[in-house]
Amino acid sequence: MGLRGRRSISRHTVPQLVALAVVASQVVAVAVTVGPMALAAAPGTITEFRPAGISQTVNSDPVGITAGPDGNLWFTDSGASTIGKVSTSGTGLQEFKTKTGGATPVAITTGSDGNLWFTELSSSANQVGRINTAGTTLNEYGIDKKGALPAGIVTGPDSHLWITDFGNGTIATINPSSPTTATTFSITVPTLMPQGIASGPSGHLWFTEQGSAGGKIGEMDTSGTQVSDAQAASSSGAGIDGITVGPDGNLWFTEQSHAIVGSMTPGHLVHEYHITGSAPMAITTGTDGALWFVDVAHHAIGRITTAGVVNEFTVPTPHAFSPNIQPTSITSGPDGNIWFTEQDTKAGIGTIVVGNPVGAVTASPSSLAFGDQAVGTTSTAKTVTLTNGTTDTVHVSTVAVSGADFAKSGDTCTGKDLSASGGSCTVGVTFGPTSAGGKSGTLTFTETTGNPQTVSLTGNGTTAGGGGGGCDNGLLGLLSALLRLLGLLPPCS
């Protein structure tokens, strides 16, 4: 199928803030209760839960996670071949075995029938599963193509479940109202191996294609016809993985091998945001109007705004995510916070508090007036202070001066992390006019709130005998001195 509309790709290197997260509480073998601090935690605070039954099971690998219709978090444990649920307080863990042993459940979502549906990434199982919220009924349904490796799953605009078949290069669907066998539809290039899937614009299904020559996003209507196949990654071997619909109505996706989070409009216009050293995988939309993703390489949870501003929060447990287990998973929970699964080291469930920083970053003073300065000389430095008045850490990526006659002096801001509620830094600015006349410029701070702070700069270059200039000598100097005494000329500089 041909591409619809025009496609262009732009790449950006975005400033990255890695903030050490605070562990508010943990539920482990030695119980540590969830106290009031966890309830009042600041945005960016990470809590990890390891209830007995997950971390104490050597084969446990929690992978998929979703918000259930019962107000709990539901997850798949691929290693133990179980479906689990846990409350938003991290307590009340229950796990339910799949009927097929070694089924390797991975992705999970809520179906239109009010049950939880999941994929079983085992070619021998060749199935998708369903479980009710009480955990009392678990069924498994075959896929009509042998050797399937069902990976992603989502409820489509037609209320059916739609599944990516990584093994055969097909997209499958099943009706939750009268489930029998899942029906498959071939994609344009089956060897591109579909991975993540989202229900998105135009009432279509949108899916990532991860094959070695991939880096594409496919689009399929609910009749099973592939409508388009758009190149989303700027080059092959991207390891394109997660996909979700952003608050801006665009498709947001990850390129784990290229260290990129990208967005694509329904018309296939692409923007790529490079995050140095990262390996972004699963991605979801948060209640704060930003995108949240799992960064396996940085062992962090990342947040990116629709303008491309990135913050990352390090998960307290080192190596929380296994690079050998796919897909990782992240979801917006019933409590409005972000929830994710941890596979490596000690398996667990994590959450990060969502919320835009309260307050503002300010630059003071907001303007610098240097007055008269002789051409060829440089003024003493004037200082600007940048203060973080928000409730979150802010990273200052650049400080730039426009206007050829102004220069920085003593910059302590560039590359600095300003602590919440009062962290500050300073920049000095000098004025050195190269010609006579009025001059202007701007001092600009770029930081991770996405609202650049600017300071206006003004000054006047003077010359001997010029307006507002130096003192004259000889007869002309005597005349100038008399005029100054009468107040008809300004003092000489």
Explain how this protein is built.
The protein starts with 8 loop residues before the first strand and ends in an 8-residue tail after the last helix. The chain folds into two domains: 9-352, YVTN repeat-like/Quinoprotein amine dehydrogenase (Methylamine Dehydrogenase, Chain H, 7 Propeller); 361-462, Immunoglobulins (Immunoglobulin-like). Helices cover 3% and strands 44% of the residues. The radius of gyration is 29 Å and the shape is elongated. It has 493 residues and is mainly beta. Mean pLDDT is 85; it is low at 1-8 and 14-40. The strands form nine sheets. The protein has a five-stranded mixed beta sheet, with no helix packed on it. A five-stranded mixed beta sheet has the order 2-27-26-25-24, with no helix packed on it. A hairpin with a 5-residue loop joins strand 29 and strand 30 (348-352).
What is the terminal-to-terminal distance?
74 Å
Spatial arrangement of strands, main beta sheet:
1-23-22-21-20
Count the domains. Answer: 2
Tell me the Rg in angstroms.
29 Å
| Overall 3D form | elongated
What structural class do helix, strand and pairing data support?
A: mainly beta
**Beta-strand content:** 35-45%
CATH architecture of the largest domain: 7 Propeller
Contiguous runs where pLDDT drops below 50 for at least 5 residues: 1-8, 14-40
Overview in brief:
This protein is mainly beta.
Topology diagram in text:
Layout: E1 9-13, E2 16-20, H1 36-39, E3 46-49, E4 62-67, E5 73-77, E6 82-86, E7 94-97, E8 105-110, E9 116-120, E10 127-131, E11 138-142, E12 150-155, E13 161-165, E14 170-174, E15 183-186, E16 194-200, E17 204-209, E18 216-220, E19 226-231, E20 240-245, E21 251-255, E22 260-264, E23 270-274, E24 280-285, E25 291-295, E26 300-304, E27 310-314, E28 330-332, E29 338-342, E30 348-352, E31 361-364, E32 367-374, E33 382-388, E34 394-402, E35 406-409, E36 417-418, E37 424-431, E38 437-447, E39 453-462, H2 474-485
Parallel strand pairs: 1-23, 2-27, 32-39
Antiparallel strand pairs: 3-30, 4-5, 5-6, 6-7, 8-9, 9-10, 10-11, 12-13, 13-14, 14-15, 16-17, 17-18, 18-19, 20-21, 21-22, 22-23, 24-25, 25-26, 26-27, 28-29, 29-30, 31-33, 33-37, 34-36, 34-38, 35-37, 38-39
